[in-house]
Amino acid sequence: MLGRSTQCSPTERRRRAALRASTVSSSRLSPVQSRNDMHESRILAVEHISLESPPGLEGEHRWFYGELAELEEVVREKQAGHPLLVFFSRPIELRIRITPEPDIRSTKTSVVILVSSLSTAMGQCRERRIDYIRLSGIDSTDRRIQLLDPGGNRVELKQYWPYAPL
């Protein structure tokens, strides 16, 4: 029951106020109230990922994302006068804008791409002398490698491993 009580804590009063506000039509809420009422689950999907790279590496990007990461290349026109490489993995597009002054920061979040065989990907990296770091999570099936794409963007290649019953 949401009745008023002199015995409830400030936290409980805020929770009750939020519950009452959530029943109000969103058209009556101000932008600030709407933002405060949002939940993490409002983000349903990532539509595309945008990276940048210096010119002259297009062939290396095609091998890296097409062969190594097993993504499908899609032909696209230029974006804002710059060539654009696009790789597709339903429903997400990975867009690489070729620009003379790319904005590549080592602190950007990694792009994680599933591959069919992590050992094959590591072998291809060794053949091409591409450095990578092996990573593993808490679970023994969470294995991946982290490396830089030809443009210097951080990428993780991951393989899903089936869980085995104990």
Could you give the topology of this structure?
Layout: H1 10-22, H2 31-36, E1 48-53, H3 58-68, E2 72-74, E3 84-89, E4 92-98, E5 111-114, H4 118-127, E6 133-136, E7 143-148, E8 154-159
Parallel strand pairs: 1-4, 5-8
Antiparallel strand pairs: 2-3, 3-4, 6-7, 7-8
What do you see in this structure?
This protein has 2 domains: 33 residues, no CATH class; 112 residues, 2,3-Dihydroxybiphenyl 1,2-Dioxygenase, domain 1, CATH 3.10.180. The protein is 24% helix and 25% strand. It is built from 4 helices and 8 strands; from the N terminus they run H-H-E-H-E-E-E-E-H-E-E-E. The strands form 2 sheets. A 4-stranded mixed sheet has the order 1-4-3-2, covered by helices on one side. A 4-stranded mixed sheet has the order 5-8-7-6. It is extended and about 70 Å long. The two termini are 46 Å apart.
